Amino acid sequence: GTLTIPIAPPEQPTKMTTPENPRIIALFDVDGTLTIPRGEITDSMMEFMQSLSKKITVGIVGGSDLPKQEEQLGKGVVDKFPYNFSQNGLVAYKNGELLEVQTISKFLGEENLKRIVNWALRYIADLDIPVKRGTFVEFRSGMLNISPIGRNCSRPERNDYEKFDLENDVRKTMVAKMREEFADLGLTYSIGGQISFDVFPAGWDKTYCLRFVKEEEFDEVHFFGDKTFEGGNDYEIYSSERTVGHTVTSPEDTREQCTKLFMS
């Protein structure tokens, strides 16, 4: 007769087994490392990650929020691997259990948050730039995103603003003034993209998740990411003294490097 092998229905979370080398942990960025940028993980890559997690402890550390991470890695991703961090670890899961949710409002307090928002709106109100639209301050749970032109501008307006900003240092100047004004709050400013910059507490990059990866539990902490250059969002955790950093160029490269390191 034919041998049928039962396949677990995909909806069921796979129960996490103890890996062969539990004291080695590898943390993985999502975008560009496990998936193509903004894409979904392939079945074969997910299968690979699940076989890797039989060898070593596996953790995911992404910058976006959990719903976005689930779009890329599948529903129930917090149950697939022992450590799961979204928003760099501001939302942290271990073995499927929620450990902590940290937000910028909780951390700074409403009074300080209001100070920043009020100051930014006043500053932008007095800015002389060619075009202003709307949504100048966007509150996200892990940061404030501030845009002098406003986030709901059109693509052509966005492109024009970027050029104007580069020629006139609009964002650079605003950030320099905020550093002075809010020196007491210990904030980090990151100018990225075309029209805005992010403001968040110092240390809220991907190294934030390392507080949940206890030193006494692991002999080696590996990190795999694609944006490991200075200014990239994997740079701090990649260059942290607590991790062995690995730069990857694609999910295929991640798979190849992990096979060499952990599967042979």
Using brief descriptors, characterize the structure shown.
alpha/beta, elongated, 8 helices
Write the layout of secondary structure elements.
Blueprint: E1 21-28, H1 43-55, E2 56-61, H2 66-73, E3 83-86, E4 91-94, E5 97-101, H3 104-108, H4 110-125, E6 137-140, E7 143-146, H5 155-168, H6 170-181, E8 187-192, E9 196-201, E10 220-225, H7 235-239, E11 244-247, H8 251-263
Parallel strand pairs: 1-2, 1-10, 2-3, 10-11
Antiparallel strand pairs: 3-4, 4-5, 6-7, 7-9, 8-9
What does it look like?
With 264 residues, the protein is α/β, with parallel strands linked by helices. 33% of the residues lie in helices and 22% in strands. The protein has a 7-stranded mixed beta sheet. A 4-stranded antiparallel beta sheet has the order 6-7-9-8. Helix 1 runs parallel beside helix 8. It is elongated and about 80 Å long. The two termini are 36 Å apart.
